[in-house]
Amino acid sequence: MNEYIGRCFWSGNDEIYTNYHDTEWGYPVDDDVRLFEKVCLEGFQSGLSWLTILKKRENFRKAFDGFNYHKVAQYGPDDVDRLLGDAGIVRHRGKIEATINNAARAIELEKEFGTLAAYFWQFEPDATERPDEMSEAEVRKLAQTDKSKELAKDLKKRGWKFFGPTTAYAFMQAMGLVNDHTDDCFCREKALAARANFTPPKPKSA
Which SUPFAM superfamilies match (predicted)? Predict the structure, then answer.
């Protein structure tokens, strides 16, 4: 008999989802391409399940040059038509055009802050803003926070699209800016340890 392993309530039974939960979700990320990819995929996920996006993730990576935002920012009308014809991704014109727009905005952030990571990690909540542990019931009903609202508002001001406060919070959960692994999840302590050994990047000097 296999030993029961406690996981977050949402991880389900699909191997793709479980592996994502166990190895990615909630662990701190400072890789700019991964951060940009996550912003984009969260936008594509709007109205769909995250499992749907995960199953298409490799197709998205192939279609969008590995989410190299310097390349994506150069896409033109022919690329939009190409992507609209790609059955391996979510073929939504608004989301595709938002991804191209956001790539250009990402380059602007990179120029201003040095890295995308330095920008995003400014929005990590501190100990006074967030409890150390959250129950399953608390995590279930938590869709956005003051920090996610702040992040979404700032990105909107900077011209980013398809990134509201709920999407921002899902991004923060996934990229390790918050640790929402529940108390009975075996990944919670692993994520805490990863965060303890992680030094958030700082914006470049003005």
Answer: DNA-glycosylase
- Residue 122 is given by DSSP the state G
Average pLDDT, the chain: 91
Domain ranges of the chain: 29-196
Catalytic residue check, 160: no
Q: What is the DSSP string of 28-64?
A: ----HHHHHHHHHHHHHHTTS-HHHHHHHHHHHHHHT
Compute φ and ψ for 30, nearest 5 degrees.
Answer: -125, 15
Catalytic residue, chosen from 17, 25, 37, 42, is: 42
User: Can you give the pLDDT at residue 194?
Assistant: 97
Whether 121 is a known active-site residue: answer no
Which pLDDT score, from 0 to 100, does residue 47 have? Answer: 87
Q: Taking the domain 29-196, which CATH number applies?
A: 1.10.340.30
Q: Which of the residues 20, 97, 124, 136 is marked catalytic?
A: 20
**pLDDT for 125 beyond 60:** yes
* Alpha-helix runs per DSSP H in 46-135: 50-63, 69-72, 77-84, 93-113, 116-120
| Cα distance between residue 108 and residue 71, in whole Å | 14
Choosing from 50, 97, 124, 150, the catalytic residue is 50
